Structures are given as C-alpha cells and as structure tokens.
Amino acid sequence: AALRSGDRVGLASFTDRVEHFLQPRKSRGHGWAVIRAAFEHHPASHGTDLGAALGFATKVLRRRAVVVILSDFLSPRPWSDALGALARRHRVHALLIHDPHEEALPAVGLVSLRDAETGRETLVNTGNSSVREDYAKAAVQRAAERDMTLRRTRVDSIRVRTDRTYVDELY
C-alpha cells in the first residue's frame, strides 16, 4: 500500500541491537526486498533492546516518516524516552504483539519456564493460586505502563493477538 501511494518503505530488524537495516526507498523491487528480509531474518541474539532500536530509527530517518513498530514491547531495558524522541519527529504506530499466555498462567502444577532473554530456567508451581495471581497482576501492571507510555507519546496502537488472525485487528 505504501509503495502504491508513492511512499518509501524500509526495515530495521533488531534484538539487543539493530541486526538488519534497509534504508527506505520507493522501488517495487525494494518493497519485495523488505518483505523478504522480514520473513528471512534469523536473529543472532536472544536479547531485546527496544530503546536502542528506536534510537537508531531516530538517528537514521532524516525525513519525516510513518514508523510502524511491530513488537511485544517486553524489553528489559527502558524504551519510553527513545519512543518519545522518535514520536516527536515522526508519525509512529505500534502493532502490539500480544500472547494471551503472558496474561495468565493455567493451573497445571509444576512448570519449567525459560527466560527468552537469558535462557535461565525456573520451576514454577502454577497450581498455587497466589503464584497465578501475582503473575496476572504483574502482566496487568506491565500493560498499563506500556499503554500509558504510548498515550503520553501520542503513539497510536493496535493490539494483535497471537491466538487469532491479525486481519480483523488491522481492518
């Protein structure tokens, strides 16, 4: 759609650093290169630094742009200041990737959970109601802080759930 309307399209893929960057361009071939790069990206790291990626975008985007951030916004490092700086210069939209399993734990007994950032494993007793309640409260607090930051920086957002088709959310 962006290419049809004569807009430039680019891509920055990141983990704890920007791993791949395609400068925004207008050509149809470049549009396909962006799509291909998005699907073929194999991250070199398991960490996440959303703030570094947003800071990178602020530095490299010289012209005003529409920036779409596709993320779960679960970064262990601060990102709100970088988002604010990006949003002051550009029109920013957030596609919030949301996995319902990050809201509530099922009561299934002992479960081994692995931190995607560090690889550290922890044994959790999901049969304990206070463990499930604490987990749910932490998820609500994270979402509230994220949503407050998005509102404060005037970033529009759409929540896309992993257990449903994205088509209904986007249209």
How would you explain this protein's 3D organization?
- With 171 residues, the protein is of the alpha/beta class.
- The protein has helices spanning 28-40, 50-60, 80-89, 129-152, 167-170; strands at residues 9-14, 18-25, 66-71, 91-98, 110-114, 121-125, 156-161.
- The longest helix has 24 residues, at 129-152.
- The protein is elongated, with a radius of gyration of 18 Å.
- The two termini are 13 Å apart.
- The mean pLDDT is 91.
Tell me the radius of gyration: 18 Å
Largest sheet: 3 strands, parallel
Ends distance: 13 Å
Q: Helix count? A: 5
- Name the helicity range: 25-40%
Strand content: 25-35%
Structural class designation:
alpha/beta
The largest sheet has its strands arranged as 3-4-7
Mean pLDDT: 91
Shape: elongated
| SSE pattern, N- to C-terminal | EEHHEHEEEHEH
Overall strand count: 7
Uncertain residue segments: none
Task: Please summarize what this structure is.
This protein is an alpha/beta fold. The chain has 5 helices and 7 strands; from the N terminus they run ββααβαβββαβα.
List the helices and strands and how they pair.
Elements (H helix, E strand, L loop, with lengths): L8 E6 L3 E8 L2 H13 L9 H11 L5 E6 L8 H10 L1 E8 L11 E5 L6 E5 L3 H24 L3 E6 L5 H4 L1
Parallel strand pairs: 3-4, 4-7
Antiparallel strand pairs: 1-2, 5-6
Helix pairs in contact: 2-3
